[in-house]
Amino acid sequence: MSGPGVFITGAAAGIGRATALNFARQGYRVGAYDVDLDGLGVLRDEISERGGDVTIGALDVTDAAAWSARLREFTGAAGKLDILVNNAGVLTAGAFSDVPLPVHRQMIDINFYGALAGLHAAFPYLRDTAHAQVVNMCSASALYGQPELATYSATKFALRALTEALELEWRRYDIRVLAMWPLFVKTAMTDGVETGSTKSLGVNLSPEDVAAAVYAATHRRRRLTKVHYPVGRQTSVLAAMSQVSPNWMQRLITKVLTRT
């Protein structure tokens, strides 16, 4: 356990998998967790074959007891955690009233409560590690509420607020908290998703694009604090416009892009 450790949720596929592979290549001890044990097994074999150090385990992020157990196993006697990546998430697109209520609840439970539970459980390990960091996987959908992605967008707004609050609150413990802001990424989550915004903007980012951005953000120390990291040119433009545009302009841009 001599190298730095990164704990990644939703690591069996997509962004989580790409992030695990990237950190393993950089010499990190990788803790890869998901409900998909078959996917994690494939990831473990790939990292191990390359000489990397990886631990896998089943983790339902809505289960606080499971969070505590997996963190305890990964950190071991040292009790240190360099980076936590809250990546696990689900998405269901469609008209708000057409999506069954339990599906709305699932998005809230996994996307927001799952990250909150992880942050709560990981805090003692982060606090006891010098220069610890948290990466919350936010979304460009948190710039303005998104039609056809209403609840998903709401969970990312909530995660944005939690990130901003803890970035200030945990600064005293030398814990850096940041949010990644990708637009649509070519993963299983977006397979078959057709909304006004996907038709207008396309699905242009790869998991590797986001993984590279996560690694860069966690290894770039800045004199001025930066909390939010847009991923890709489209998100960078939209995020910059949101900083200088009045609310009515953001609404109009969203209306045009989502074709509503």
Describe the structure.
- With 260 residues, the protein is an alpha/beta fold.
- 48% of the residues lie in helices and 15% in strands.
- The protein contains 9 helices and 7 strands.
- The protein has helices spanning 14-25, 37-49, 64-75, 101-127, 150-169, 196-201, 207-218, 233-244, 247-258; strands at 5-9, 29-34, 53-58, 83-86, 132-137, 175-182, 228-231.
- Strands 3-2-1-4-5-6-7 form a 7-stranded parallel sheet, sandwiched between helices.
- Strand 5, helix 5 and strand 6 (175-182) form a beta-alpha-beta unit.
- Helix 1 runs parallel beside helix 2 and helix 3 (64-75) runs parallel beside helix 4 (101-127).
- It is globular, with a radius of gyration of 18 Å.
- The protein starts with a strand and ends with a helix.
- The model has no long low-confidence stretch (mean pLDDT 94).
Put simply, the count of helices is 9
Shape: globular
Tell me the strand percentage band.
Answer: 15-25%
Structural class, judged by helices and strands? alpha/beta
N- to C-terminal distance: 52 Å
User: Major β-sheet, in short?
Assistant: 7 strands, parallel
What is the N-to-C succession of helices and strands?
EHEHEHEHEHEHHEHH
Major sheet strand order: 3-2-1-4-5-6-7
Total number of strands? 7
Uncertain segments are none
Q: Mean pLDDT score, rounded?
A: 94
- What does the radius of gyration come to? 18 Å
Helix content, binned percent: 40-55%
Pfam families: adh_short
Family: Belongs to the short-chain dehydrogenases/reductases (SDR) family.
Organism: Mycobacterium pinniadriaticum
InterPro entries: NAD(P)-bd_dom_sf (IPR036291), SDR_fam (IPR002347)
